[in-house]
Amino acid sequence: MTTTAEQLSATTLLRFATAGSVDDGKSTLVGRLLHDSKSVLTDQLEAVEHASRSRGQEAPDLALLTDGLRAEREQGITIDVAYRYFATPRRRFILADTPGHVQYTRNMVTGASTAELAVVLVDARNGVVEQTRRHAAVAALLRVPHVVLAVNKMDLVDYAEPVFAAIAEEFTAYAASLGVPEITAIPISALAGDNVVEPSAHMDWYGGPTVLEHLETVPVSHDLTACHARFPVQYVIRPQTAEHPDYRGYAGQIAAGAFRVGEAVTVLPSGRTSTIAGIDALGESVDIAWAPQSVTLRLADDIDISRGDLIAPADDAPAVTQDVEATVCHVADQPLAVGQRVLLKHTTRTVKAIVKDIPSRLTLDDLSQHPAPGRLVANDIGRVVVRTAEPLALDAYADSRRTGSFLLIDPADGTTLTAGMAGASFAAPDGPEAAADDAGWDF
Q: How many CB atoms sit inside 10 A of residue 46's CB?
């Protein structure tokens, strides 16, 4: 008999994030999803029922399942990113419920940065608003390959198909213009449960999947082993014991791709070359290892390698540069200004850097560029040019979300200032990223 653990190990994992404007019902949708999929523990549901009664509500407010901070419950808003883990027999999920307020755009960037799918909610009464466009643009910037438009509160517009169709058409056209490769529109009522887990009895005109059905069946086919192989060195192992007098291994987590014994590799930024003499994984020698395994590589030659170096195939190594051009989201309360000295953290490497230029700030409601703003403040998204003190082996974010992203850090106190994505801002709508096979997307 197959055990539950074996069933879960055989299912795939989907990371997804929810977003939308204030009061569009994100937390209610998540609560309904957890409740109707039987993913809520009894004591959690009892706590929600008690909190709802204390607020004078007869029915349990399912939004309280995700709004965990006291300030969130008191104000009825989502402030922080709430992560929830649940599973069905078909798939495991990691959910990031992100805030809807403009001032918490940075929180959405955090939640969506590792997501393979984003659920953007729209209130059927209000349609596509500025914050809807903002969240669609953030999803496009972060190269989230699947976007679901959940048109919520259909019960308040009498489940009218024309209302849904008009919103879906407007949003799909906007998101497609940003280069989002796949958009799925679903009419729902999170409060009543229509089309969340169970099909709605009120919208027989809709023949598509429910939200959960789509989450369970959307293809997660981004094979890290088929991507550009990258291995950031985290630690150099030199036991120098009687048993291992000459052992020299380079430990870390494979960021993408696969490595094989005998393969020719280049160590960056030095550019020295060697071959893989051995791979150790979980105390055993193996012939091949792939992302996201944590392994130790042994090379045939003694090369000066330290934490922060990058090992890549000799015939597929990234370019090394000290001039980084990127799209960034500023996440700190203190502004980022031209001339500011920062630390740049890329994979396991941290180097000194200076902000040479801020060419533009993006206005996400209409995608216009505000030239030469001079600085970025909290939640701003803009283009920056950074000069680093040491060379970096940086991929374009469009090629690799892992080795194309970085952080700018305040050297004085270690505060994270900015999240960066190297290379172009948006995918070209007619480019390879828009192809049906998601060419160019890397997770």
A: 12
